[in-house]
Design goal:
Elements lengths: L28 H16 L4 E3 L9 E4 L9 E19 L9 E14 L5 E7 H14 L4 H4 L2 H6 L1 H10 L1 H5 L1
Antiparallel strand pairs: 1-2, 2-3, 3-4, 4-5
The structure holds zinc ion.
């Protein structure tokens, strides 16, 4: 049971962002409340996607709304994301790693299979920003952030900012 009143945006280097999330066992009112709470957090922070670990909950669930509206939200529960074709290098940010924008290598296309809030399984092929968002959010439930994905030069460039975040959000790691 997730206490959705306690859900807050989590920041790097919080432990919940570094671990593999657990499958959602049952899609019930609690999960629906969690999705509502995640929607609020994502829209408040002007993101296009949010994974449950970013709300402090280690579950395999994320939401995406490419146009940043409530109506545009898609829910992905227990998803699998499979890359298709070639790689691409595009600048990305992350709500959990504020003020850092860095080029991340991802596949141009991918396939996603997931369950929605009505417990229906669906499969889609995605490209462009959608494909990138799916891979970014899937990384989150695998415990991977753009801080792990960025190249060694970017790590040097962003070293100070990452260090500052680590100091600012240190308590989150010790919790
Ligand atoms: Zn992110």
């Amino acid at each position: 049971m997730v206490d959705t009143d306690k859900c807050r945006i989590t920041h790097y280097p919080a432990k919940v962002l570094a671990g593999k999330a657990q499958p959602v066992e049952k899609i019930d009112d609690n999960i629906r409340r969690l999705v509502e709470k995640m929607t609020d957090i994502m829209l408040e922070n002007k993101g296009v996607g949010l994974a449950a670990p970013q709300a402090g909950v280690p579950l395999r669930l994320f939401i995406i709304s490419l146009d940043q509206t409530k109506e545009g939200i898609k829910v992905f529960i227990n998803p699998t994301v499979t890359p298709i074709g070639e790689l691409d290098l595009v600048e990305e940010g992350c709500l959990s790693i504020p003020d850092i924008y860095t080029k991340i290598r991802r596949y141009k296309k991918c396939k996603v299979t997931a369950t929605d809030l009505a417990s229906n399984e669906f499969t889609e092929e995605a490209e462009g920003l959608y494909a990138r968002a799916l891979q970014h959010e899937f990384d989150h439930i695998e415990g991977i952030t753009i801080a792990d994905r960025m190249g060694s030069t970017a790590k040097i460039v962003h070293r100070k900012k990452l260090k500052k975040l680590a100091e600012e959000y240190k308590e989150a790691v010790e919790e």
